[in-house]
Structures are given as structure tokens and as C-alpha cells.
Amino acid sequence: MEATLAGEDLVVWRTGSGVPCVSEARCPHQWSHLAHEGVVDGEELVCLTHFWRFGPDGAGWKANLDGRRDRKGDLAVLPCVEHDGAIWVREPGAEDPTGA
Ligand code: FES
User: Which of 31, 32, 86, 96 is placed for a possible disulfide with 37 were both Cys, Cβ 3.0 to 4.6 Å?
Assistant: First the structure.
């Protein structure tokens, strides 16, 4: 799902095991919008343009057919929490946005 915060395009997604994630929306390779060109595969968000993969920590990888994984560019991630069915971005140093 796409979102915008302070003019920044974001992608909000959930890993296969249910971990909520928020990151910058643009793939660091060739700028595809991951809310439109990305799919979740297990615990990673995959850019369908050239198949770079990103974990919840934003680390970028390319998986080769022989099983080798090569490091690629990373996505900036925003810390987030889930509360009452919504995903909230937590600014560094700020109080919990859910008030919990
Ligand atoms: S634009 Fe995302 S992998 Fe190339």
C-alpha cells in the first residue's frame, strides 16, 4: 500500500509472517515505485522490475538462480508499530504515537 508522509512517498507492507513495515517507496536500483511494482515473498518485498529483494530492515539483495545472494542497495525504513488495526510511523526519539 502506498502512503505519503511529509511529502515522502512510502510503501507500507507486511511480511509473510505478519510483521508491519514502512519504507521509502522508490527502489534504489531504478526508482520503481514499490507500492505498484513490488510484491511480498515470504519475509521480503520484491521489486518486480529487476527482482531486487528487501527485508524488513531495508537491506537489499539480489537472489541468483544458483541460490547465491548478492548485496544491493538498501531502502530507508521508518520504525513503525501496529495499534488498533493501523500501522503508525514512530519518529526517532518521539513518544509512542499510539499512546500505549
Ligand atoms: S528498479 Fe527495482 S530492481 Fe530494478
Answer: 32
